[in-house]
Amino acid sequence: MERYYWNLSAAQAKGEACVLCGAAYRDNGPKRTPVGRDPATEAEVYACASPCVAEIVAETDRMNREMREAAGLDEDESHADLGCDGEFRRLLRDLRVLVGGEALLAVMQDLPTLRYVLQMTAVHAETAMIRSRKLLARAQAGDG
Ligand SMILES: [Zn+2]
């Protein structure tokens, strides 16, 4: 799962607690399902198989719908040939991380978190640039 979860507690970031409700996963605790990654370590993070995953799925469905509407993807499938190797999907992921960074920078108070978010922004902005240029070159080659 490629989705990033921000502002996790230490236990959540290590996959020891639900990213949604915060319940700790012990031997007799709730059953957990992988739902994404911690942006700092890329470690897998989890949510309770029931009911938290259903809530995340519903939220993701809504976000996908809004994103498709905003981008007009339902009317225009012309990008489809660009995304056949997943490069387009990875570009969207970079852009989502940057949007998350923007939201964090707007409210950020402490210096260590600021440094961390700036680092994430630099990495994903750079990969977004490389992917965009690659897709652009491919699109232009397709025109000719
Ligand atoms: Zn939960």
Can you describe what's shown?
The chain is mostly helical and 144 residues long. It has two domains: 1-76, no CATH class; 78-144. It is 54% helix and 8% strand. The protein contains four helices and two strands. It has helices spanning 10-13, 52-71, 87-107, 111-143, and strands at residues 32-37, 44-48. Strand 1 (32-37) and strand 2 (44-48) form a beta hairpin. Helix 3 packs antiparallel against helix 4 (111-143). The termini are far apart. The model has no long low-confidence stretch (mean pLDDT 84). The site of zinc ion (ZN) has 7 residues, from strand 2.
Radius of gyration: 18 Å
Which structural class do you get from the secondary structure elements?
mainly alpha
Bound molecules: zinc ion
Number of domains: 2
Distance between the ends: 36 Å
Low-confidence stretches: none
Strand share of the residues?
5-15%
Q: Could you give the count of β-strands? A: 2
Along the chain, the helix and strand elements come as: HEEHHH
Number of distinct helices: 4
Mean pLDDT, as a whole number? 84
Largest pleated sheet = 2 strands, antiparallel
Strand order of the largest sheet: 1-2
Helix content: 40-55%
The coarse silhouette is globular
